[in-house]
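The record is passed on directly below:
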Amino acid sequence: MSGPVRPVVKRTARAILLEFDPADPHAPAALVLIRRVRPGSPHPYWITPGGGVEPTDETVVAALHREVDEELGGKVTDVVPAFVDTVAHSHHEDGTPAHPHGVKVQHFFACRLAGMDESRRHGPEVERPNGEYAIVKVPFTREGVTSVNVVPPSLRAYLAANIEGVRALLAPDLG
């Protein structure tokens, strides 16, 4: 049974951002995340850097680079599509209706952290924060990924099951 194709009302670009030890490329990488705490909520959650694709972004990958620059003051290399998550999205963040059957498509890219300067952070999360946005690093291991509440849950499950596979997406011989 199939239904009509649901309209995509929002797209996001998010980084599965790994930081490798240049002295030991076989050592576990660190996964760079943002610890979020919304006002009035005692429950933190962890998200990958990234955000909405804007009309001014030429591509989804361009949006990823812009978002990493804004949120981390960071630069990334070796950007490789890794995971897509589709969720219902009938209302925009401001509460206005989007479409009753709309969806948000989240594009997750495996990428390598080329550099980060937190003093360069800018954009709405920094200039008009709605709660806490703290940059954190966890070991890119099953234990590290599952030690925090990474959202969406589908990404947490994907990462926990694919540590080696995501690392392989960034291998020099991928092509």
